[in-house]
Amino acid sequence: MEPDRQLVVKSNHIIEASYRMSVAEQRVILSAITQVRRDQPKVTDAVLYSVTAAELAELCGTDPKTAYRDLQNAAERLQTRRVTLILEPDGVTIRTKRRSTICWVQRVDYIDQEGRIELRFGKDILPYLTGLQREFTRYALSDVAKMTSAHAIRLYELLMQWPEGHRVVELDDLRRWLQLEGRYPSIKDFKRWVLDPSVEQINEHSPLMLTWSQRKTGRKVTHLVFDYAPKKQPAKAVGKAPAKRKTGKLTKEEVARQARPGESWEAAYARLNQIPMELEPVTA
Fold first, then answer.
1. Which of 114, 163, 129 is nearest to 143 (CA)?
2. CA atoms within 13 A on the CB side of 163
3. 1-146: CATH topology
């Protein structure tokens, strides 16, 4: 990846964790994550990360006044946001399945005159953002910057966790990850308010083109099947052959002047007049 891209890197434990944040809050957290120095052996919770409204407005294509308002609202709520992880036994530090709830940040300051947030990540969340050697997900911040659905951002992360282009997700797991266990109990409502808008935004704003289908167990929808691939890039325009000269054939001097380095006079004449090489060149 290009060195100047702002990369979001998260442990897969966080990708599949249970939490909810607004779009503005996610933008702040993701912007701060891109600033984490992963080339250092140990990053402490004393490091301050700064995010400005002007930066978010430029990145997300929003009105600066809206960005200032969203940043201030995010500052007021971020310290209360928590994430719940399901930790499976690893035989060393975790011997039984454990549900762990931790804070995203330990401190948030809003500097009004500068339209800027300063935050410190929580001590317990940092191991899931730094020093990652395996089981992590990485993507460019610009991939999700213009999304206006918090669910779309989360769904995109879940897809990037499986870059093979195919993922099957249990519907109950997706509800838990998005903290929607008690909302939209009808699959029809879940599609209308969560799934369809998320897919639409991913297709509009991200580098992926996404389709989905559903699987049933009996008569109940239990799984969602996502298929996705990078969008096709527009074909590069192929240079057109030079138009034929309408006012007569080229002279020897004109052909010589327009010949390419190392190109014979005969080859240049045929190219410039768009004629087969076997034809006899004309003499002045």
1. 163
2. 7
3. Arc Repressor Mutant, subunit A (1.10.10)
**Position 246, amino acid:** K
Residue 108 sits at φ, ψ, to 5 deg, of: -135, 130
- How far is residue 29's CA from residue 8's CA, in Å, rounded to a whole number? 10
pLDDT in tens, 249-282: 567 777 677 766 556 666 667 667 655 444 344 4
- How many CB atoms neighbour CB 233 within 10 A? 7
Bridge partners of residue 212, in order along the sequence: 226
Question: What proportions of the chain, in percent to the nearest 5, are helix, strand and coil?
Answer: 35, 25, 40
- With cut-offs at 50, 70 and 90, classify the pLDDT of residue 96: confident
Element containing residue 59 per DSSP (H, E): helix 53-60
Digit-coded pLDDT (tens) for 28-60: 999 999 999 877 767 889 999 999 999 999 999
* CA–CA dist 33, 116 (Å, integer): 16
How far apart, in Å, are the Cα atoms of 30 and each of 35, 90, 142, 267?
A: 9, 28, 10, 57
Residues written for the chain: 284
Domain ranges for the chain: 1-146, 149-233, 241-284
Q: Residue 97 pLDDT more than 50?
A: yes
Contacts of 243 (CB under 8 A, 6+ apart): none
pTM: 0.79
User: Per CATH, which fold does 149-233 belong to?
Assistant: Arc Repressor Mutant, subunit A (1.10.10)
CATH topology agreement for domains 1-146 and 149-233? yes
